[in-house]
Amino acid sequence: MKNTINLPYDDASCGWYAALPEQPACKRLSGEQRADYAVIGAGFAGLAAARRLAEHHPQARILLVDAQRVAHGASGRNSGFVIDLPHKFALEHPDPAHKQRLLSLNRAAIAQLQGLVQTRGIDCQWSHAGKYQGAVGERGLAYLEHFERLMSDLGEPFRRADSAELAKVLGTGHYSGAIYTPGCYLMQPAALVTGLARTLPANVELLEESPIQRLERDGRGGWILHGTAGQIRTPQLLLGTSIFTQEFGYLRNRLLPVMTFASWTRPLTDAELATYGGQLDWGLTPADHAGTTVRMTQDRRLIIRNTYKHVPKYGRSTSDAMRSKIQDSHRKAFLARFPQLAGVPFSHTWGGVYAISRNFTNFFGELENGVYASACDNGVGAAWGTISGTMLADLAVGADSVQLNDIRAVTGMPSLNPPEPFLGLGVRSRIRLAAWNSRSEL
Q: What DSSP letter does each residue of 140-196 carry, written as one string?
């Protein structure tokens, strides 16, 4: 096991987080603490795991610890889609039962999040808006045809939308066509995550800005979590740490750290909204997976997301100069779609790191006695993080369920990566090739 941990190092320019009200002061790890359960990582998975543990054991002391402020990491940086359908690659799985299990798990996560949003009064622009999968040209339309066949095989509802319909909704004639699926929800991710953290059960104690830098066995079957200003002793440890799981010595050489980037505008004025001519509150993902994701939020902001980078040092692999260059490419994508809004500037450009695996397999389960993890969401973290964190708590307390059996059936071991420098060369080459092939869809 490694003696030190490479910590998260996210940029301070995330628009979602900047749009939040000022956050109250946080509590940090201090001194020696004891807990019945410790959960590292307060993203979607860690929040769900801590909540479920508290439901199972309302008298237990549960410590949820994060290296940063809640929502400053990956869970507060995504594009705000909570998608029910299996991921594009999972949709091609040959076993229909596998896909139905994924669909059921994702929908259970959506129902869970919706229930919390409604009962806890979480203001996060939660909306059952559905989702467009859009194509710009012939390459994208070919992907749409393939997606339509997969959806038909799955037996899920969808409909084709032509360019005229899209122009009315999206405010742009840029798209050749799209497929609309109704099961997706949209939200403000940083607002949702901070709302989930604010409404945790009373026996969950949240410790922010408290990086755990080393794990140590205590000699009695439990663990000591070493922080900068304190320690946590616990018999049970749950990791909702995504790509950072490898920093604790687990799943080494099996996870790939990838960062994707987004830019958004300031809120449109009334005059700009009239010039835009489309609707509020929609989301579009690209038919070509390397294309551009676009959203219009409820508060009048347009979002452009594309560009992928291999980031072996996580946030330290990026720079202000890199983000400036990426913002320029986002600007080109924005103007191609919304030339009538050429005078509307971007206010923020940010990146978020997530874990993928070469075989597109999610890990879920017990890593060793008393240590449980959900890692590698392969880019669909909101729903998957929520349900996998919930089920991880069930696994830790020995509570069986149909959903636990389902998640065991659809997860496995991410495949090993080749050694460096071959890994980095291969990943960067593949990203460049995908961007070149998809250039007409960007």
A: HHHHHHHHHHHHHHHT---EEEEHHHHHHHHS-S--SEEEEETT-EE--HHHHHHHH
